[in-house]
Amino acid sequence: MKTLILLALLGVAWASEDEKIVGGYECSRHSVPYQASLSDGYFHFCGGSLISSQWVVSAAHCYKSRILVRLGEHSFQANEGTEQHIYSSKVIKHPNYNNANLDNDIMLIKLSQPARLNSYVQTVSLPSRCPVADEPCMVSGWGNTVTGGGTVMPDRMQCLNQPMIDDRICKNAYPHLMTENMLCSGFMHGGASSCQGDSGGPLVCGGQLQGVVSWGYECAMKGHPSVYARVCRYNSWIQNVMNSN
Predict the structure, then answer these.
(1) What's the chain's average pLDDT?
(2) Pair 232, 130: CB distance under 8 Å
(3) Cα separation, 10 vs 209, whole angstroms
(4) What positions carry a catalytic annotation?
(5) What is the pTM of this model?
(6) How far apart are CA 55 and CA 33, in angstroms?
(7) What DSSP letter does each residue of the chain carry, written as one string?
(8) Hey, how many other C-beta atoms are within 10 angstroms of the C-beta on 147?
(9) Which residue, 200, 207, 194, is CA-closest to 70?
C-alpha cells in the first residue's frame, strides 16, 4: 500500500511467529493459492494475483521493467517445494494511470512461461459484478505488520478478513481524493489494515478479485481505511490486453 503521508522507516526486522499483518493472522498454509509475490530477484516489494496461467494483476505503482513473480509461496525463508519463480516477459501499466493521485492504479504482468496450476498455485476469478457495502472480503500479503513508523516484514503470508465500506463513507474519509475507480475496504475504527509491502495484492470477496491494494494514510489509522483499485471497472481492459499480447 502506498502512503500519501510519508512514513519514517526506522529499520526493518522480520516478524516473529506471533506478529501479524496489522490486526490480521497468519494464513493457513497455501490457502491463498492465487497470491503472488513480486520480487526484484532478491527482495519482495509488492503483491499480485494470478488470473490465468500466464497473467498476474498488480498495482501500477509497483511497476518495474523486469519482475520475478513468485508463486506457491508461504514462508519466504523455507524451501517448501511448492514454489514457482517465473520472470516477467511484459509489464503493462494502465494507460491512464495517474501517479499523482493513484487513479487507475492497476497493471498486468505477463509471465515468460505459463505457471503450472496445481493445489498450491491457482487462479482467482475476475469479478462478474461490482462489490456491495458490508460484503465480507479478505486481503492477504507479506506487508508491514506494525504501525507508528516502524517496519516489520513477515516471513509468512498474512491474511485479514474485512468488510467492503460504503462508497459514501469512503468519500467522506478521503475528501477530494477518491475517484470512481477506487473503493475502500477495512475498518473505520482502525486497528487493522493492509500496509506497505501489500501493494498490488488481492482483495477477494465471494471468490472474486474485487480490489488491488493501492494506497492509504498511516496503516490501520482510525477513520482512514485502505483504498483499492476497483477491479470490476477494468474487466474489458484486462481482457483486451491479454488477448492482444
Answers:
(1) 91
(2) yes
(3) 33
(4) 61, 105, 199
(5) 0.91
(6) 14
(7) -EESS------EEE--TT--STT-EEPPTTS-TTEEEEESSSSEEEEEEEEETTEEEE-GGG--SS-EEEES-SBSSS--S--EEEEEEEEEE-TT-BTTTTBT--EEEEESS----SSSS---BPPSS---TT-EEEEEES-----TT-EEE-SB-EEEEEEB--HHHHHHHSTTT--TTEEEES-TT-S----TT-TT-EEEETTEEEEEEEEESSTT-TT--EEEEEGGG-HHHHHHHHHH-
(8) 17
(9) 200
Amino acid letter for position 31: S
pLDDT tens-digit series, residues 191-227: 889 999 999 999 999 999 999 999 998 899 999 999 9
Cell representation of residue 40: 526484484
Per-residue pLDDT band at 3 (split at 50, 70, 90): low
Q: Is the dihedral of CA 65, 71, 76, 77 positive or negative?
A: negative
Per-residue pLDDT, 21:
61
* Alpha carbons 209 and 170: distance in angstroms, whole number: 19
Count of residues for the chain?
Answer: 245
